[in-house]
Automatic annotation (TrEMBL):
The lineage of its organism: Bacteria, Pseudomonadati, Pseudomonadota, Alphaproteobacteria, Hyphomicrobiales. Its EC number is 3.4.-.-. Residues 66-209 form the Glutamine amidotransferase domain. InterPro entries: ChyE-like, Class_I_gatase-like, GATASE. It comes from Methylobacterium komagatae. This is Type 1 glutamine amidotransferase.
Length: 291
């Protein structure tokens, strides 16, 4: 891709705290940023990729580089609650405002969408209905979403890996809602602010099914408290099936028990939004709906 142009340069912004990064590595062997880096290297093998932890006090870009030196910034998921005033949330939101101001295109999943929302003047809240855990079901593109390149290739309704306790309450002025479902009104959106553009989703196109199983195990107590499981054994039984489908995506029996189709079991389809974002960059297109 882009053989006649310099390799793409990506900056992965990993807004997990150090404690959350370590907990995730213990669970699935990699932090959220490391998951992003792995997929980016598979999508664009010759890409140059850097990583920054904007929630950390010592976060800094590599020497000699600025945000304008990147083709795109990608924001990972995170357990940060953006409606809480903490040093970590303030630093992360300030970083995203700098990304918008730089004009560098950005993409984000889960908390990444929430960070961009707050940075541009919208709001985030705890889930209003209930915890969306494991998979977001029957995500439906809006009219604008059906025409938007972020969701190109997605069917009229689809499922995707998801686990989040917070959601976008109100998109910022000028944002475009691209998809939603029964539990979460904002599942995908485009946000334009201060000269920058962001494409984001509330779900996780970047994670593998093993990471879904790991997230379920890490949040087992919350799932029981929310009434989604009777006890830890229930959570483990469900996670075990998800792990089994990760090990063998052709297991039709497990896909049937979990109510999943190829939009989740097929890695290429599962990563649709990330692939669409990277391909838009590679074609040199502005990140906007064609007029």
């Amino acid at each position: 891709m882009r053989s006649s142009h310099p390799p793409l340069r990506f900056l992965v912004a990993e807004s997990e705290t150090q404690q959350a990064r370590e907990k995730r590595r213990e669970s699935v062997g990699r932090s959220s940023g490391e998951t992003y880096l792995d997929i980016l290297h598979r999508l664009v093998p010759d890409a140059a990729c850097d990583r920054i932890q904007p929630a950390d006090t010592d976060a800094a870009l590599p020497p000699g580089l600025s945000l304008t030196g990147y083709d795109a910034v990608l924001l990972t998921g995170s357990p940060l609650h953006l409606y809480e005033e903490t040093p970590e949330t303030r630093r992360t939101v300030a970083f995203m405002r700098a990304v918008f101001a730089s004009g560098t295109p950005a993409f984000g999943s889960c908390a990444g969408l929430q960070v961009a929302t707050v940075a541009a003047g919208g709001s985030v809240r705890p889930n209003a209905r209930r915890l969306e855990a494991g998979f977001a079901r029957r995500i439906t593109p809006t009219g604008e979403g059906r025409a938007h390149p972020l969701l190109a290739g997605r069917p009229a309704a689809y499922d995707a890996p998801a686990i989040h306790t917070d959601e976008v309450e109100a998109l910022p002025p000028g944002a475009t809602l691209l998809a939603g479902n029964r539990l979460t009104a904002v599942q995908a959106a485009e946000i334009r602010f201060d000269g920058g553009v962001f494409w984001g989703v509330q779900y996780h196109p970047e994670i593998g099914l093993d990471e879904v199983a790991g997230a379920l195990r890490r949040q087992a107590d919350s799932l029981v408290e929310a009434g989604l499981a009777r006890d830890g054994e229930d959570v483990e039984a469900y996670a075990w099936q998800v792990d089994g489908l990760h090990a063998d995506p052709t297991r039709r029996d497990l896909a049937w028990r979990l109510g999943l189709d190829e939009q989740v079991t097929d890695e290429r389809l599962r990563q649709t939004e990330m692939r669409n974002f990277v391909e838009a960059l590679g074609r040199g297109r502005p990140l906007a709906v064609d007029s």
